[in-house]
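Amino acids appear as letters; backbone shape is given numerically. Here is one record.
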Amino acid sequence: MPDKKITTAFLAEVPKTDLHVHLDGSLRLGTLIELSRQHKLKLPSYTEGGLRETVYKDRYASLGEYLKGFKYTVSAMRDAEALERVAAELAEDNQAEGVRYLEVRFAPQLHVRPGLDAVQVIAAVDRGLRRARDEFNRRPAMASGAEPPFEYGIICCAMRMFSGGYSQYYDTLFAAHPYTRPKDLFAMASVDLAHAAVLARDAHGYQVVGFDLAGEEAGYPAGAHREAYDYAHRHFLKRTVHAGEAYGPESIFQAITDLHADRIGHGTYLLEPDQIRDPEIADPEHYVERLGNYISDRRITLEVCLTSNLQTNPDLKRLEDHTFSKLRAQRLSTTLCTDNRLMSNTTMTNELALAIRHLGLDRQGLKSIIIYGFKRSFFPGSYLRKRQYVRQIIDHYDAVERRHFG
């Protein structure tokens, strides 16, 4: 049964993480409208209510409908000023609901234009996040050490595939290599991004903490991006991969073996043998059992996004049927995330409340989920600093819990 003592006020006050949130999926609607007007971009509506009705809905008919909203947000984030603003506002929105550590992911190559290369794109996002962090941490409670400070990291997303006309970077890549197979171009783009991410971190000091692979799983295997992930691995850049969201357990296996994944984005179908499509896997039940044990033993964390999964997976009719409960029962390392605050019209407080209301998460489980988010983060500081930070978080969590429950 749900723990009725857990209030929304408590959920909003406890320190939280969001380790899986897309920058271009988390704009404020007002900002999207303002930037679109500024750049003379066409929107289906220029009111927040109109956009909620036509594009950014509570429920979607398909993943395709869900993804349509990104063409408007990516188009609006077309210069360094817009990128910096959107990043700062995302940090501020998270701070307002008690998120103390935020890992923002996005695909820098979608924003590359003449005069704005991938490293400059990363720089703009870092400026926005850094400004919001520094302003928040100057508040008395954080400056005095009475409460843990806000911190952030940037995760650069490579794409499994892309189409012409969506990004000037990709259009230029296609034009420069007209006789190269598309899948090889996708891999080349990933390698290029891995180099840019490491350069942004090491040469410029931007807080790039991780590398990700996003996009359609079916037909675009993760293994094609092995070279990019090898480069990230050799340069001690942490790794996560979107896998098991719309494809079976074998996609997750490839992510952790070929790409050295430290975490898995979504991982919804990890323990679902009926989702296996590889005909060479003769015993699906045994396969998922061994895969689950492997991931559990190595504490590879799954970044679970409840609302997003409900909206984009036509087979998931209600949250009570989400695999989160099964993953928790197997003692897998999981953390809850928003995925896209705008597209899914959600917050971290809301995601935790859904798990309590529909999936039986109790106070003990809630604390475990939240603290493990901090422990399995790609924290930008040293290991010793991370341990100190997690200790601060736990002490603050305990203090909030005592105030609410005695």
